[in-house]
Amino acid sequence: MNLAAPENLAVVDRLLTTTRSVRKRLDLARPVEPEMIERCIEIATQAPSGSNRQSWHFVVVADPAKRAGLADLYRQAFDKYLRGREQAPADPRDHAPSTSTQRRVTSSAIYLAKHLHEVPVHIIPCIEGRVESSPPFAQASHYGSILPAAWSLMLALRARGLGSAWTTLHLPYEQEAAQLLGIPASVTQAALLPVAYFTGDDFHPAERIPAREVTHWDGWGQRR
Q1: In the chain, is it the N or the C terminus that has fewer CB atoms within a 10 Å radius of its CB?
Q2: From CA 175, how far away is CA 58, in angstroms rounded?
Q3: What distance in Å separates the CA atoms of residue 71 and residue 77, rounded to the nearest whole number?
Q4: What's the DSSP call for residue 19?
Q5: In contact, 187 and 127? CB cutoff 8 Å
Q6: How far apart are the C-alpha atoms of 109 and 15, rounded to whole Å?
């Protein structure tokens, strides 16, 4: 298949521009087939990794009690995060989200925190090794070996009618999550992806800062 063919480019571009963080539209009642998750993880493991080490792991959590345990940890961190945001000064950036947009994002985040335990599948992408005390290049390489696979997983899910959201709020309680799931202390958890079929028909491209405003040619601040 020639992916550069116009008809194929249209499909790929649609996938890339409509893969949203899904929170309120996660179908909490519909089960997710294990085979579907397994196929998407197979696709995800085609992603690149540093030195081709392929040291990733994906912890799939479908057990209701363990999902509830993860959700409790998530909510503890979310409550602290939300209080911090309420006390923070207004964002001074020229392109800060509009008040209405920010309200929608906050509302969906609150909804997810409240209902996370009901989401039928949680996936925690992990990578072998720890880099907390390592130099920046080592940290970038470490996370750069799991993030492409996790994003490929989210794209594969989206293509099959499944929604997900990139969340990291459970990570202040990473050790507690590791204990709950038996994850070795030598393994880094990168995120928690709530996964479910999504409700409604489709998603649309989101409003974004124009690409030319964040593109720098041959030096910072230089435009073409």
Answers
A1: N
A2: 17
A3: 10
A4: -
A5: yes
A6: 23
Reported in sequence order, the residue ranges of 70-176 that DSSP labels E, i.e. its strands, are 121-128, 162-164
Domain spanning 26-86+102-201, CATH class: alpha beta
Distance CA 181, CA 66 (A): 8
**Residue range 130-181, pLDDT digits in tens:** 999 999 999 999 999 999 999 999 999 999 999 999 999 999 999 999 999 9
Give helix 99-115 / helix 64-87 axis angle, nearest 10°: 150
Whole-number pLDDT of residue 94: 47
Query: How far does CA 48 lie from the centroid of its chain?
Result: 17
**What residues contact 26, with CB distance under 8 A and at least 6 apart?**
112, 115, 119, 163, 165, 194, 196, 197, 198, 199
185: Cβ contacts below 8 Å, ≥ 6 apart: 175, 178
Residue with tokens 């997983």: 153
Spatial distance between the Cα atoms of 81 and 87, rounded to a whole number of angstroms: 10
3-state SS assignment for residue 57: strand
Contact 211, 129 (CB under 8 A): no
Residue 91 has pLDDT above 60, yes or no: no
What does the alpha-carbon distance between residue 68 and residue 76 come to, in Å, rounded to a whole number? 12
* DSSP E strands, the chain: 56-61, 121-128, 162-164, 187-189, 193-197
Q: Where are the domains of the chain?
A: 26-86+102-201
From 153, 156, 218, 141, select the one nearest 191 (Cα to Cα). 153
